Each structure stands twice: as C-alpha cells, then as structure tokens.
Amino acid sequence: MDFTFSEEQQAYRRQVLAFARKEIVPRCREHDLRGEFDRQAFRRLGEFGLLGLHLPEEYGGAGADVVTTVMAGEALGEAGVDGGLCLAYGAHTFLCADTLLRHGSEELKRCLLPGLASGELVGCMGLTEPGAGSDVAALRTRAERRGDEFVLNGSKIFITNGPLADVAVVYAKTDPAAGHAGISAFVVERGTPGFSAGPPLHKLGVRTSQTSELFFDDCRVPAGNLLGTEGAGFLMAMQTVEWDRSALVAPFIGSVSYALERGARYARERVQFGRPIAEFEAVRAKLAELTLFIEAARGLVYRIAWCKDQGRPLNHLEAAVAKLFVGDWSLGPANAALTLFGGYGYCHEYDVERVFRDGRLAAIGGGTSEIQKMIISKLM
Amino acid sequence: MDYELKPEETALAARVEALLGANPDLTAGAARAWLARLGECGYLAAGPGADVARLLAGKALAARAPWLVFAAELQRLAAELVAEHGALAQREALLPALRAGTRVAALAFSEPGRPLEAGPACRAEPAGEGYALSGQKGPVSLAACCDWLAVLAATPRGPAVLFVERAAPGVEPGAPLESFGYAELEGRPVSLREVRVPAGQVLGPLPAAALPGLIAALRRAEDRLATAAALGLLARCLEEARAAASAPREGGKPAASHQLVRFELAEMLTQLQTAELLALRAAAAAAAGSPEAERLGLCAKVFASEAACRVSDQALGILAGAGYLRSHPVARALAEARLGCLAGHSSHAARLALADDVLARLAPV
Ligand SMILES: Cc1cc2nc3c(=O)[nH]c(=O)nc-3n(C[C@H](O)[C@H](O)[C@H](O)COP(=O)(O)OP(=O)(O)OC[C@H]3O[C@@H](n4cnc5c(N)ncnc54)[C@H](O)[C@@H]3O)c2cc1C
Q1: Which of A158, A207, A305, B290 is most buried, by CB atoms within 10 Å?
Q2: Cβ of A376 and B3 within 8 Å?
Q3: Which residues have a Cβ under 8 Å from the Cβ of B29 and sit 6 or more positions away?
Q4: How many CB atoms lie within 10 A of CB B2?
Q5: CB pairs under 8 A between A and B
Q6: In a mutagenesis test of the A interface, which of B3, B237, B262 is the best target, namely the one with the most A β-carbons within 10 Å?
Q7: How many whole angstroms separate alpha carbon A291 and alpha carbon A289?
Q8: Strands A167-173 and A211-222
Q9: Is A1 in Cβ contact with B351 (below 8 Å)?
Q10: Phi, psi for B119 (deg, rounded to 5)
Q11: Phi, psi at residue A79, to the nearest 5°?
Q12: Distance, CA A368 to ligand 1 centroid (Å)?
C-alpha cells in the first residue's frame, strides 16, 4: 500500500493553494455575507483550469486524473474558499459537465463543454423535486416524446446554480410506470421556452452558491438533448455518486483544515487568564479533534478517487461510508473549531462560523446520512 | 498512491489465520505455545518496514484473542531492546530465542503508583560480576509463565534493562490482579529482592538521556498493539452483532428488521473501515520512514481504540442479554477495548501530543 501523492500532485496542490489564497479567498467573506454568487471568482477558477480539470483536453479541459482533481478540491477548502463557491464548482463540473461528457452526443459536447470548462457557461443538475428527495424514483417531472422533441413538464427544487445556469442536466420520467427504469436525462439550455428558475433560496450555509427551483412548462427540447438512452437516467445519476463522494466532499475536509490552521494561530494569539489559550489543555484537545477528523476522512475519500483512476466500478458501500463519515463526523470538529474562538467564532471575522454553516450540508446534499446508512446496511 | 494490499502485506495475516484455525485453545495456559507458533510463522521477527503486514496479522489475532497481540508485541519489544542496546554477545544469546518465541520475555517497566517518566525506583547495584536487583514492579503481564523478566531499573551509572530469569532466587510474583479485562495476561505485581543478574544479561547501564527513549519505545509499541487490537475487536464485534441481528427470533422478526438496528450496524462498519484505513496509512508511513508517521500513528491509535469502545457498546446493545454474559466475546470486548484507550499514549495524552504537533506546524512561535 502507498498513500502518498506524487511529486506532480503535491506541486499542483501547492499551486492551487497559492492561487486560491491570493485571488479567491480575499473575495469570499463579502460575498458570503451578502449571499451573492461571485461570478468573477468562478471565472478565475475556470481560467486557472479547475472547472475543467478532469475533462479531456479536446473539450477544453486538462485531462487530470481523479486523485489530482479531488486533491484540488480539498486544496480550495484548505485555502479558505467558502463552501458555496466550492459547491457551485462541484455541481457545475461534476454533476453537469461530467454527465454531459459521459453521455452527451459529440455535438452537444463540442458545443457546451469548452464553455463549461472555461466558466463562460454555468452548469447545474436538476434531480431533486418537491416530492422526490431521498426517494429519487418518486420524481414526477414528465418528458414526453413528440416527434423529434421532448416536452418537459414539472419542477425541481434545491438546484445549485439554478438561477444562473446556462446548461441544466435535468432528470425526468419518460415512462412513469417503470419506476427507476423510466427516468431519462436531458440537457436543457437557458432561454429554452418554458424553462425558468425561481429566485435564490435563503440558506443556512453555502450562501454564495445560488440554489433555486427550476420550472418546466411545456418546455421543448430537441431529441438530441437526450443524454444516453431513454430510461438510463437513474444509472447516470448514480454514476455521479462517485464524484459526489469524492470531489464534492473533499472541499469540506479542506475547510476543516482551514479552520484548524486558523484555530492554531488564534490559540497562540488569544490571551486569557494571563496566558495564550493554547496552553489550556481543553483548547488543545479541540485542535486534536480537527486533526483526527481530517486524517480519518482523507483515507476514505481518496480511496474512491484512486479506485476511479484504476477504472474500477464504484464500490457503493465504500462510497456511502465515505459520505456518511464526512457528513456526520465533521459536525463535532466544526463545532469545536467555532467554540475555540469563543464569541469571535460566532461572528464572521474568522470564517469559522462559515465553515460550521457550510459543513452542515455534507450530511444532507447528494443523499442524507440516513440514506447512506440505508445503502451500507443493505450492502454489508 | 496505491490502495491495493500486496501479497507480502497479507501473507503474515494469512499464516496467523491458519494458526488460529488449527489451534483453538486460546486460554492463558496456551500462552507459551502460542508465542512459539507466532515465532515460527515469522510474526515475532517481522522487522521494521513490515508494519502493514504486522498490523494485519495483529488484527487477525485480535479478532479471536486480543491478549495474544499484547503478549506478542511486548515480546517483540523485548527483542527490539536487545537489538538496539545489546552487545554482540547479548544479541547472539538472546535474540534468536526471543524471535522464535521459544523463550518468553515479560516486560517489567511499570512500578505501582509511579509514572514511568519519573524513572524507575527499582535499583540494580553492582555485585560481583553482575548486579543485585531490588524493588517492586507491576503489573507485569505473563509474569508467571515467562522465562525472563525484562526489568527496567536504575544503576549507579544510568538506567538499564536487566533480563532476569523468572526462576531466579528473589523473584517473587504476587497473585494475579483482578483486572476489568485481559484476564489471560495475568498481570501481577512482582517483588525483586536482591536478585543476582549476571552482567551478560544486562542491557546497559545506558546514558541517563536514554531513559526517555526507552519509555518512548514502550509507548510506541503499546500504541501499535492497541491499534491492532482495536481493529480486531471492531471486526469481531461487528461480526457478532451482524450475526445476532439477522438470526431468526422466536415468535418475531430478526432484530435487523428494525431500521435503527440496521443503521447502527452501518455506523459500526463505517467506524471499522475508517479506523482500518487510517491504521493502514499510519503503518505504511511508518514503514516508509515518513515524517508523518508519528502523527498518523497517534491519530490511528486514538481513532481505532475509541471506535472499539463505541462499537463494542453498540454491539452489546444489539446482542442484549446474550452479549452481557461475562464470557461472551462482546462483553469481553467492552472491557478489552477500554484498555486500548489507556495503553501507550492514553487518549488524553495522544490528543495533547497531536495538538502540540499542530501548533508547531501551523502556528510556530
Ligand atoms: C444547498 C443544497 C444544494 C442542493 N443541490 C442540489 C442540486 O444541485 N441538485 C439536486 O438535484 N439536488 C440538490 N439538493 C437536494 C439534496 O440532494 C436533497 O435535499 C437531499 O437528497 C434530501 O432530500 P430532501 O431534502 O427532499 O429530504 P427528504 O428526502 O424529504 O428527507 C427528510 C428526512 O427524512 C430522512 N429520510 C428520508 N427517507 C428515509 C428513509 N428511507 N429512512 C430513514 N430516513 C429517511 C432524511 O434522511 C431526512 O432526514 C441540494 C440541497 C441543498 C440543501
């Protein structure tokens, strides 16, 4: 066994850290406080090559391996990039662009992927519905074939990048009687008649990502926008799980590293009872709590990335274990980080309250912890 | 990066599994025979660099008899001390039998009511060609069945480790202490009264500065064995709980028909997998001599040993009355897991060491 990263991977990680600290992080706090998407930062992520990092070069990407891609996500969090921007990037790159890459026609790929890789276009993925969250098969958005078009009717909710999206990968039922097997996936472009987004929802955390409803009202899309074949949508959604359990959760782990670094410095600087609080064992124990989480979580998340690089089929059990661990076990460390800063931790200036709020999503988005336990207990 | 276990990393565990299959007697009376078997299969001699193999073998052993991991790793530590501090003749005389497990060494470092860091109160005074050793040690595991006691003592010229024949006049093991768990180790106090030890059996006297190194070696060995033992306990508890949860119950459905029970099993598996990966990572780092090895080793030890406590408790919740019987592996695991949090770097001490490392790396003064 060998858990080390290659020299190139480590060098790239350092580059991402330096880039993010210099160009992105200084902008994060104000956008978070205003609850605004930072389009300029998003474009810079594209220019730096992160939005298309794993996409093939022919579509504007860099063709990086999965471990490097996951490591870049972790580095963004570690640098201090807020969870909202990381989520916007994750939904855009892994849930939208990657699905398009795997299942889209050549024409769609050539037309949309370069723009997605550069950040000129913003992508989203619409699966969840008001009546279908954990129970994906219950989704009710309909797609009916009419000639060489599909007509979509229904709505989606909680869609990251929804209000901004130029390209949406949308899951809908082409055969309502067939359960999972009746779900298909489509590309719907901004401006398509009958396609609209609701206003951004007010959220606890990941506030710089815009989350909204999507509405489909006799929305006609060309048959060529069907991804893969009819009825293959559920499997496609499940394929994104690999990314969801690795690249999308990696920034959460990185953000705990960010809180650890800030916490260590604060513990040295903050003096109470005549000495730095780092001298109090109960304060030091909190730093240890964060370290334990980071090291434990890394092993699980990079295992998924490494297996994907080896071309192995996803081990759903291991994926659920990683998601469950990051989701549930990050709560204690995030809370410990906030507590370490006392009242300052409850305010925004040290960013730990943001880490605390943003991290809360890890146990909900992309399948709740209960759903992970369901999967694990079924497969074990 | 490579998450795949290599044949050379799994071979030792496979040999240990085979031994466990062929030798069902895991009672305290079988300790000597087991150490000889572990010597024969290469476990006791597996050197530095074989950390992953040892971890997996230790886990396999601990899933059936966690006390054997303690016995084997302490024997290994005795051999390591000889290899590091012994003169050539001592190495030739002591090492082969220790590594083969044909002679058993019990480690007598601790003293009642005295922290190791305070240094030994036990004294070895020069006497003729060797030393006369006096003092109180304990608890000493396997003190009654060992051949040698490896006794940490102070000489006028610095600390030393004396390999004392257990049958030597003046060596007086007391009655076994009634411990919460690990009864097979039969930890007991040992009185040493003017015990004559030939110079050839003495590692040292060492420079005074060597004492922290000896203590650190003991803590490291205990951390390693506590990690391996925790992995075995985690695996065993999960196995027992799973079997109990799916067993048909008279007049009702199996316990696993309840979502809460199934979810608890999922949490247990998550902790096992997380602990195992972290421990493997720490072992791989140790084998590679990585600067991260110490930090990862502490993380693995704390996480695994605390997970074993939680998981044995969860398993007991699923097994209910059956698991509460004193002889049940899960009831035993509950007590055994607790020792893992105390041995080596205790959970408290490890957390403070981890925090010191964080402060030194991320916020140097
Ligand atoms: C900020 C944010 C961004 C998101 N981005 C996207 C996106 O880009 N695209 C997208 O499609 N979706 C997105 N989602 C939706 C997300 O994936 C869902 O919220 C999630 O899957 C849970 O679905 P739900 O909210 O409908 O909860 P529900 O499924 O209604 O669950 C409610 C509660 O019941 C529990 N529960 C449900 N079923 C079971 C069961 N069988 N056993 C035990 N407990 C159960 C759940 O764990 C939860 O605690 C986003 C959500 C948020 C909050």
Answers
A1: A305
A2: no
A3: none
A4: 12
A5: 139
A6: B3
A7: 5
A8: unpaired
A9: no
A10: 85, 155
A11: -70, -25
A12: 6
pTM of the model: 0.96
- DSSP track, B131-173: EEEEEEEEEETTTTT-SEEEEEEEETTEEEEEEEETTSTTEEE
Domain spanning B211-362: which superfamily?
Butyryl-CoA Dehydrogenase, subunit A, domain 3 (1.20.140.10)
Contact A300 B4 (CB under 8 A): no
Picking from B48, B168, B148, the residue whose alpha carbon sits closest to that of residue B93 is: B148
On whether the A7-122 domain is CATH 3.40.50.300, my answer is no
Distance from the Cα of A268 to chain B's closest Cα (Å) equals 7
| ipTM metric | 0.95
Region B105-206: CATH code: 2.40.110.10
Nearest CA in chain A to B243: A380
- β-bridge partners, B164: B149
pLDDT of residue A260: 98
Sorted by where each begins, the domain ranges of chain B are: 7-100, 105-206, 211-362
Q: What is the pLDDT of residues B239-296, one digit of tens each?
A: 999 999 999 888 889 999 999 999 999 999 999 999 999 999 999 999 999 999 999 9
Check whether B206 has a pLDDT greater than 90.
Answer: yes
Tell how strand B148-155 and strand B105-108 pair up: parallel
pLDDT less than 50: residues of chain A:
none
- Give tens-digit pLDDT for B293-338: 999 999 999 999 999 999 999 999 999 989 999 899 999 999 999 9
Residue listed under structure tokens 């590594």: B99
> What pLDDT does residue B81 have?
95
Cα–Cα distance list, A220 to A105, A143, A170, A217 (Å): 18, 9, 13, 9
So where are chain A's domains? 7-122, 124-231, 245-379
What is the 3 state secondary structure string of A30-80? HHHHHCCCCHHHHHHHHHHCCCCCCCCHHHCCCCCCHHHHHHHHHHHHHHC
Q: Which CATH architecture has domain B7-100?
A: Orthogonal Bundle (1.10)
Q: Is the CB of A94 under 6 A from ligand 1?
A: no
Q: What is the pLDDT of residue B251?
A: 82
3-state secondary structure of A155: strand
Domain topology for A245-379 = Butyryl-CoA Dehydrogenase, subunit A; domain 3 (1.20.140)
**Rounded distance between C-alpha atoms, residue B30 and residue A11, angstroms:** 54
Q: Work out the mean pLDDT of chain B and round it to a whole number.
A: 96
Q: Which of B4, B274, B357 sits opposite A325 (nearest CB)?
A: B274
Hey, is the C-beta of B36 within 8 angstroms of any chain A C-beta?
A: no
B37 φ, ψ (degrees, to nearest 5): -65, -45
Q: Does residue B267 belong to the interface with chain A, where contact is any CB pair within 8 Å?
A: yes
Average pLDDT of chain A, as a whole number: 97
A203 lines ligand 1 (CB under 6 A): yes
Residue B300 in tokens: 């693995």
Whether pLDDT at B230 is above 90: yes
pLDDT of residue B250: 80
In CATH, which of 2.40.110.10, 3.30.450.20, 3.40.50.2300, 3.60.130.10 is domain A124-231?
A: 2.40.110.10
Quick one: pLDDT at residue B252? 85
Distances (CA, A) of A34 to A101, A202, A243: 34, 11, 29
pLDDT band for position B47 (cuts 50, 70, 90): confident
Mean pLDDT of the B22-33 span: 95
